[in-house]
């Protein structure tokens, strides 16, 4: 190869690489814009959650799993009603072995004066907590989220096996 051919090859290669850098820079800018929009969407969703979903009556707390509303906590004169939005079967192993045992333990420890569980069509509809401590309330919220998450993952696995 002579000098001119090498120089011509190098110039064409440099031009090709410069075009590729420009393409990648444009893609990067698009990705930054998409990430910015996603971030704004997450911030807006968080703001709505913190405002109590706007249309909620005063004092009602919304319990979320990811972006889904799974329950509402409604203060009562002697405690809190946790009204579930469906989805947890009363005969689910985690409801029986985890959530109910937790409620019993909280009652035995004195973190809860009493509790009542209401069901509708074999689904857990409501848990009434009588005089719960803040710790007991947090533990029940966390337990409901956990049982809900496991129930959702079980349902999606069963759905994909069909």
What does this structure look like?
By secondary structure, the protein is of the alpha+beta class. The chain folds into two domains: 50 residues; 100 residues, 2-Layer Sandwich (Alpha-Beta Plaits), CATH 3.30.70. Helix content is 57%, strand content 22%. It is built from three helices and five strands, in the order H-E-E-E-H-E-E-H. The protein has a five-stranded antiparallel sheet, with helices on one face. Strand 4 and strand 5 form a beta hairpin. The model has no long low-confidence stretch (mean pLDDT 83).
Layout of secondary structure:
Elements: H1 3-50, E1 61-65, E2 68-76, E3 79-84, H2 93-109, E4 114-120, E5 123-130, H3 134-160
The number of helical elements comes to 3
Low-confidence spans: pLDDT under 50, at least 5 residues? none
The CATH class of the largest domain, by name, is Alpha Beta
In sequence order, what are the helices and strands, one letter per element? HEEEHEEH
Reading side by side through the largest sheet, how are the strands ordered? 1-2-3-5-4
Describe the global form.
elongated
Separation of the first and last Cα atoms: 65 Å
Biggest sheet record: 5 strands, antiparallel
- The class by helix and strand makeup works out as alpha+beta
Secondary-structure arrangement, i.e. CATH architecture of the largest domain: 2-Layer Sandwich
Average pLDDT score: 83
> Quick one: how many beta strands?
5
Question: Domains counted in the coordinates: how many?
Answer: 2
What is the assembly state of the chains in this entry? Answer: single chain
Strand-residue proportion: 15-25%
């Amino acid at each position: 190869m002579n000098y001119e051919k090498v120089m011509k090859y190098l110039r064409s290669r440099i031009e090709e690489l410069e075009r590729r850098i420009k393409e990648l820079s444009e893609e990067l800018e698009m990705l930054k814009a998409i990430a910015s929009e996603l971030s704004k969407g997450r911030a807006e969703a968080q703001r709505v959650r913190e405002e109590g979903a706007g249309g909620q009556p005063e004092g009602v707390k919304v319990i979320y799993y990811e972006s889904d509303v799974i329950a509402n906590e409604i203060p009562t004169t002697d405690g809190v009603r946790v009204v579930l939005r469906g989805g947890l079967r009363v005969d689910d192993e985690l409801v029986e072995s985890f959530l109910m045992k937790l409620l019993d333990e909280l009652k035995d420890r004195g973190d809860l004066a009493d509790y009542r569980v209401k069901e509708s069509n074999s689904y857990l509809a409501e848990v009434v907590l009588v005089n719960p401590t803040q710790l007991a309330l947090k533990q029940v919220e966390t337990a409901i989220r956990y049982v809900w998450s496991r129930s959702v993952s079980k349902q999606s696995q069963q759905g994909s096996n069909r």
